Amino acid sequence: NSDRTWATFTQEFHVHVWAMLAAAVVAFSIGLYLASATVKEERNLTFSETFLIVFGALCGQGCYVLFRKLPSRLVLMTVLLLQVVMLAHYTSTLVSALSVPPALPAISSISDLLRNPALSFGTTGDTAIIGYLKNSPRLDH
């Protein structure tokens, strides 16, 4: 179960969701680049600047550019809204995954413990105690 604990932080989003988030960063970067290029009063940004702004907004960071016109503001507000929804989903799923432990194997007797090869019993294998427990007629009840 230790692998599940370490993978919990990236497992909250399926691979398809991570791919869609990457595509959204590229799409919003292109949209912000076009919005800043078409509006004359707006500062012309390079694609790398718009990529940094969009990626930073999705990571919860601020923006170092002041957008004055509606097209650029709409793109940036949409990215910020996506960030809020993404963070709410990620946090709720992560808290749920960490608060509910994984199911333990069903063990009702010592014989169940001895029959399951994935579980260790706490003694050294091939000892007199293990031999006694395996051959004991009372364990089958």
UniProtKB/TrEMBL annotation:
Domain of life: Eukaryota
GO function terms (MF aspect): ligand-gated monoatomic ion channel activity
Spans through the membrane: 15-35, 47-67, 73-90
Family annotation (Pfam families): Lig_chan (PF00060)
InterPro entries documented for this protein: Insect_Ionotropic_Sensory_Rcpt, Iontro_rcpt_C
Protein name: Ionotropic glutamate receptor C-terminal domain-containing protein
Keywords recorded for this protein, A-Z: Cell membrane, Glycoprotein, Membrane, Receptor, Transmembrane, Transmembrane helix
Membrane topology, from the record: Multi-pass membrane protein
Alphabetical GO biological process terms: detection of stimulus involved in sensory perception
Keyword Cell membrane: yes
Compartment(s): Cell membrane
Family: Belongs to the glutamate-gated ion channel (TC 1.A.10.1) family.
One GO cellular component, as annotated: plasma membrane
Ionotropic glutamate receptor C-terminal domain: residues covered: 15-115
Keyword Cell cycle: no
